[in-house]
Amino acid sequence: MSLIMLFNSTCEAYDNPVYYFYNKTGKNISADWRAHDYVVVGLGLPICIFIILANMLVIAAVVINRQFHFPIYYLLGNMAAADFFAGISYLYLVFHTGPWTIKLTIKEWFVRGALINMSLTASVVNLLAVAVERHQTIFTMQLHSTMTKWRVVMLIVFIWLVAVIMGLVPTMGWNCVCDLTTCSTVAPLYSRSFLVFWAVLNLLAFFIMVAVYTHIFIYVRRRNRLMSPHTDQPTHNQTVISLMKTMSMILGTFVICWTPGLVILLLDGLSCSQCEVLKYEKYCLVLAECNSLVNPIIYSFRDKDMRNTYKRILCFPWRRMRQHEGPSGIRFESVKTGAPPEKNNYNSTSLEPISEQSLLK
Known about the structure:
about 350 residues; globular; membrane
């Protein structure tokens, strides 16, 4: 495909409806609601809402709890932001799938695909940044990176800039609208060459991250064997290992949830006619969606401080209300006396954590 065709958006094919491209590639599309369409919308809607709310809770916990004000947690918060964005993307997809797809314009269809592309790219690049950060800190025998907040902010901005660019690449021209012979089957308006490029790039990123974490684990285990008889900081070592286990669980679930879908896209891009990619497409999309659902559960399962912060956030309105109510439930204002009452940590309305220990026990 020439450079002119790549960025050409004025060909006559742009006047065709979306179902025209579906019919050309052989992907079934119906104007009538079928049983699996109701299942997709019925299950997809509550899952998307849970993804959005759960990751909002993670972001709030990272912002509120000062124990999480370190580069690794800022990146985990950004990971939650990517999952939050993924929840919005899936929600948009739920309301623009099935029979609704026929009513989409080409631009709306590209918006739907761009949102999914951006959320995946943001997650992948963020995980790469976390892998590099962990590699740098572990091999310099530190628990946290010395990266300044300004650099962390710039890194997060860079992650989202890459995500936006990758999401908009098909819209800017790397599509098959003006060359129907190159259209894919799973994504009928995407060029097969773009699917191959995107799938290979992400699978390569997966391989790099797995290699980095494997290298870190080998180093940490070897170092612990050598230093365990002589070290007086067992808690520090346990914290490092626990943090690494958490990050590995996040990476592992990400690879498990996204690899089947990327393989399907790769096979479709390579024109594998015997692979029956449409048969497994929906299942792979559901599995990918589950990744954004699982991450908040991993955070809460692995980190006691994170769980406690969740409780304080969720119980904060109720505790504020109880502060101004008497035994009968009637609200009253407290009367000031000469000496201020002693503070009770348990009943405090502060959202700051009580525990002074840090990091993913």
